[in-house]
Protein 1
Amino acid sequence: MTAVRKWTQNQGMLFNSLHFLFFFPIFCYIYFSVPKQHQYKILIAGGYYFYGNFSPFFAIILFVITCNDFFSAKMMEKESSQKRKKKWLYLSMLGNLGILFIFKYLDFADNNIRSFLSVLHIPWFVPEPWFNHWVVPVGLSFLTFQSLSYTIDVYKGVTKAEHHFGYFASFTAFWPVMVNGPIERAKNLLPQIKQEHHFDYDRMRHGLFRMAWGIFKKVVIADRLAFYANDMFSHYGEATGWTIWMGGFFFFLQVYCDFSGYSDIALGAAKVIGIDVMENFRRPFFSKNLAEFWTRWHISLSTWLTDYVFFYLGAYKATGAKVVFNVIFVLTLCGLWHGANWPMVLSFTMIGIFMSIRYLWQYNVVRYIKPSNTYKLFDKYFPGWGHASITVLIFVFCFILFRVHSIQVTVNRAHTESFISWTAIASVLYANLFKLNSAHYFKEWVMHKGILQFMIAVFFVLILFITEKYIGDHRIEDIVLTKPEQQRWLVYVLLFVSIIWFGIFNNTSFVYFQY
Amino acid sequence: MAKKIIKYIGILLGALLLLSLAIKLMLPFYWGDSTQTVKYEFYKKNADKFNAVYLGGSLEYRHIDPTIVDSIAQHNGIDLRSFNIAVDGHGLIQELTDLDGLLKIHNPNLKYIFFSISSDAYFFPANLHTSKWVSWHDATSTCRALRVILTSKDDLKSKTKFSWFYTMSWMENLFKIGMMPDVLNFYVNKDKYDKSYLGKLQNGFYPYDYEENHMFMEYKWEDTLIRQSKHEYENNPARRDSLTNDVLQSFENYKGDEKPNKAMVNLCMEAYKKCMKRGIQVFFILPPKGRISYDILLPVFNAMPEGTKIELADPRKYPKYYKADYGYNFHHLNYKGAKLQSYDMAKQLVALMKADSI
């Protein structure tokens, strides 16, 4: 175990690090220089180097997952009976989910069983766990879900089993999306990996611009907002009302910029090397309701859950209570995917409950009153931004619970003499949240780094909103790169200078690395 | 194609460099550190009131009370009106940058500069990427640092790592990487910076005992660290003794023929000659409780010209500095210790000056 822990000391290669700044051009140079039939080998080498940089142990796990799914899918295709195919599918699932469970959920399960049995005064036969200090391999949830989608697709006949181990290994080790998504599907990625890729100047321009936009979101906005989000949550006992709402909103924006920034860099990097990866975010804060929000936020995970869980539960045929159950179940599962702790799980359950309330409202009320003039008037005059604001408020309300676990860890680490439960933190936060006539700690929160720093943070958030409003649902690079040369260069220089001058470059890792 | 890409990258970098250089021209050399800004801005406005300045890091800032030194000197008929311009964390390389900046500030009365020999070119890597650290780096300071590092006795790994850190910091300052919020903050708020750093008597001396109770620090992390370091010091006599023993060993084992780091000696002499050209007398101080081994510092200190050296670190001569009663934390004295050191320093200074006048 010491070895495992020792291996996990490394911070790895972050997209916002100097290491990556060197890695990427060298990788591209080698990738485009080798004979085209060998490009997949460079992808594998790059992937294992990239992942192994976090820890060589992680690279071994990646290899195990790759072997498990490659051979399971191959065997599945050989079998003629559905029953036997299913056995191979189960083997693949056992391998993927087993690894995920051991590293991510074993400690959580053990703690819960232990707590439950202690309530009943039943002794738990497992001694004090020796695995509770294991470090979860970076992006393990992404890796396993991506690989799992392949075997499920092969089982369902959506895609054919890959018979070339090298191509398959380059699919699982496709480094741009490996540790933080988007969770790609084999049917999209594998055919592209097999193609020959020549250096394309236009693709490079598009890719690099997208990467720059992602880096801007990460280092200029997310890392700046992180300070304010952390500050508010670390003073959860003092903050009330609007301070918590603002802090929660900043946290929501921080996660959005951090995670979508990573996705932008991943998409851009993949584009440069000739591969198109799915979009992962599409302006979620312009969503008019939570259902729409879910089609715009972490799209690769929501579509994964929709395709492999929601539809499996019979989403097409379900009505009424069944839909409510399905929605809450899938969202709870989504929460569990994010973290092995109750606050994270329940924050998504809460989102599921709000989505279900909306569904019941639509299903039982709206469809009957929709033809009425009153409803039409309401629909006409209640503005889109009003819907969007309410959606964001609900999401922030639920998302505050998402943060409770990390507050608990920090507080308990700092005060080892006493233990505070997550429920105690959550109850303080939510009790204070509704004190809407107050905003304690607001002044200190704003002034902590000085008003100027706060204004800079707000300024860049406004730039983000304006840009996303302007580009609509298009890709930013498609809009900017079709502008006249002077305008284009003005954007390049502004973006470049903003990143360099206003970026925070202390190698802060991406929020979603932990999932 | 490659030419085209390089050309575009060159245009972007060139534009950035030009803009960064334009910004640099508008900034004083001390802008990155609020304490330093307060001290230098004060000194600039009151330069003619002072004829002596203490340069260095926290071992000077927190230990030397100019009022005590001045009064003893004046009592002995020496006209000394000194200001403590030292700032926490400033090592040898930064001291030279500070000196260059200081000499550009017009002060015809400046007669004495006290230069600390208490560090080499190594520093806490946690300071990297902060404006406070990055803002003073330029080609000259990088060359100075590299000369010291590459001639030190450390292993290749440390040498490479710290050489890279210095080069990177220079690049960061050249392009002002991540520094614009602090630049704006300097312009908007420099007059609002906390003047307490000047000390109670506005002489630049501010011991930790005062700072830990300073209410303005309520929302800064430093106060916690300061108090924490004091707590550790008070409760860890074994470490206290071990550090004192290390210093004692260095002095006892010193024979006088050890070779100093040449680059460090050259840098100190560069400072000495630069000041002498302007008619300014330099005194080199070897303070107590340094973080760097006295095995390195002693030979450098002893290589300085005779009549310029003020040695305050030897535990055999000054045992009180290493007693818990006089210490604030492992590497700093408390106010009581600082008063004592200022007194000892003044005595040595008077002796040196009197000998010089004879």
Note: Confidence is low (pLDDT under 50) at residues 1-9 of chain A.
Protein 2
Amino acid sequence: MIEVKDLHKQYGDIVALDKISLSVGKGELFGLIGPDGAGKTSLMRILMSLLLPNGGKATMSGLDVVADYKKIRLITGYMPGRFSLYPDLTVEENLKFFATVFGTTIEENYYLIKDIYQQIEPFKTRRAGKLSGGMKQKLALSCALIHKPEILILDEPTTGVDAVSRKEFWEMLKRLNNMGITILVSTPYMDEASLCDRIALIQQGSLMSVATPKEMTGSFPEDLWAVRTRKIYDTSKFLEKLPSVISVNSFGQVLHLVTQKGRHTSGSVQKFLSDQGELEISVTPMEATIEDVFILLMNHHNHRQ
Amino acid sequence: MITSEPVITVKNMVKKFGNFVANDNLNFEVYKGEIFGFIGANGAGKTTAIRILCGLSTPTSGVMKVAGYDIYRQTEKIKQNIGYMSQKFSLYEDLTIYENIRFYGGIYGMNMAERKARTAEMLERLELTEYENRKIGDLPLGWKQKLAFSIAILHNPKIVFLDEPTGGVDPITRRQFWNLIYEAVEKGITVFVTTHYMDEAEYCDRVSIMADGKIVALDTPQKLKEQYNASNMDEVFLKIAR
């Protein structure tokens, strides 16, 4: 549904996208995971025909993003990272505007947005600029959907949104996806990755890895241990000196220790720590999270440079 | 290094905007040397409360003291004794790193010698010495956030308020940022922080959770997890806010 080949984008000397290739299948919920400045927005803007690439090629539903830009806009819905509806129009006026621009009516595709729009319908005479963050987000999604797009592109829809609203938003996305809409969504929150069919980890304009979340966490190439301690800071300092250590990072109250494959057992880590006088500690092997994968790949990436 | 000496005291804080109650009778204390997490859903009233505590907005009623000063009559004193890093990036993009530091140092009334010493120390700590003449606008987000934090504590304030300091930052930089927070605490600075990352809530000494303008829970992460029978703060938050 979305095909990207050697796509390149540069702003002056800064390389935003470094010849990336990617393929998103019909009906997929595909996540682009990476921090600010990784190149997520540049990629999405090129796909939406809002930005010209410096090289490479991209197609959406077989249409070229440069040559066929007019057609592309009819089959895609886009929710940019920054709120970009008309603040002086009411909720209903905004929705009507988008429906009219695309030659349709609110009634025609109401079934698509019903779940989402109903939550803001009580405020339909309020100006969009006066809505709360969560309501703006729901209105923006409704406007992006009102012409029944084949592909929906969402640029960081959950940034700055609290944990509960984030969960609700993902439930909405899943429902839309089940109705057959292909979705490309970006997020800086690693924990949202597991909700996607497939994900790409993006950093400094390059795709570090593309796979299903399960494949990605299941093929963690090193050993990973959960270390529980009362003294997070002291223990992490000791662990940095452990032979064959790759990294030590805190995840809440648990330390995630990465060591080279096959070099340690929980017993040997425990012994190393008790030799340092750290006694009340538990070391257990654990399965990687997406954030562990991201950190490991990021370290590799930084070392190569 | 948490003490029992309160640096922030809030009694019956109420803030109304017309009929809307943004802060509904808040009561809490923050102790010197503490990392105090201020968590809540969007629109729960966090930013309103922070703006009041920073002396940027006047409460409707209640008794509040920050760094020993009264929130109604001594807001200028408060401003001299706190640091504030807002959600929105607030350094000057067109000025260089060095110029930004000089500017803020000037605002905080630091003299030339003090400013020079602190600037050198800070740039060395952030490993930015060779970049001091780079414009802020050209820096990656992670660097900007670390720099904004360091500038917020340039004048060695008693308390620093951080409003979602790590939003959108990569996972490694996010952890480096927390190391900076710990270093500030070591220097005796009290940290008041909001975040949407629930793993970061675990790094706080105590966490307050707001919903609909009220504080609905306030304790150490450990106690909250026990109380709500949850394995991490994400679960605690979902149980409370849903």
Note: The CA atoms of residues 20 and 50 of chain A lie 18 Å apart.
Protein 3
Amino acid sequence: MIVYLLCFVLLLVGLYGVLTKRDLIKIILSIGILGYAVNLLLILFAYRKGSIYPILAKGKEVSQMVDPLPQALVLTSIVIELGTTAMLVALAIKLFEKYETFDITQIRRLKG
Amino acid sequence: MPVEYWLIFILIVMIIASIAALEMEDVLSSIVAIGVVGLGVSLSFLFLQAPDLAIVQFLFEIFALIILVKAFMGKEYHKEEPSRINKILAGITVITLAAIFIFSVSVFELLPPFGEPLMTTSQYYLDKGAQDTGAANLVSSIILDYRAYDTLGEITVLFTAILGAFTILRIKTKSKKDKTEFSHAAK
């Protein structure tokens, strides 16, 4: 319970960064924090007390393993996150080349 | 020490590091603080018995650090002081987020408690995974067999994102400086 709440606080910190920061770098970093918090929350739901990793081996019982389904889905989610981060960074670099600032209030003109 | 206490400790460190990353002025310091958050996530995956995820998260962290440092170092610009309205708006945002947190406590009470997952679909994967797919690692048996179409979609998304990043980087832009030089030349 308290673990879930702390993880939710981490998500809210990321949301605060997205909503209030005016620096593009900080916004990209807070999107990263949001991703970390969501992944960690899903894996926290999957944990079973006193269990081991879901890899079959001699002497390891199936009834003693954690939930493998959220782990598989989060694995794909982490990889996608890297791709989206790279794309966000590319957009930010192009905006810096054009406007010479990362401040989103200075980036106004949409055309030309 | 039980796993729960370790997780609480790591999560508190991660929250402090993320606030530090958002509030620090220096770009390199905030990128390093984000690295602390990511490595904390990797460490908690190890405590939560997910070694595959811990390795992938560690690699993600290294790549993200390289990309961010390469992209953002040495790009200084004039920072304006936040105006009074911005500070008031930030305060309102913090109050709203605190209200969301207080209301969400009752939502988290509805969930199954920590350490006792539902395991309805997953119990089938655990019981029959080795027979159906022949893989010893049940996570990879789910990724590559039961949910292979999901993985195909993931690869498509990743490919599109990387292609988009390359396409964006290839476009040539005229910066402010070039434009002013051009206008001087025209005069």
Note: The CA atoms of residues 94 and 100 of chain B lie 10 Å apart.
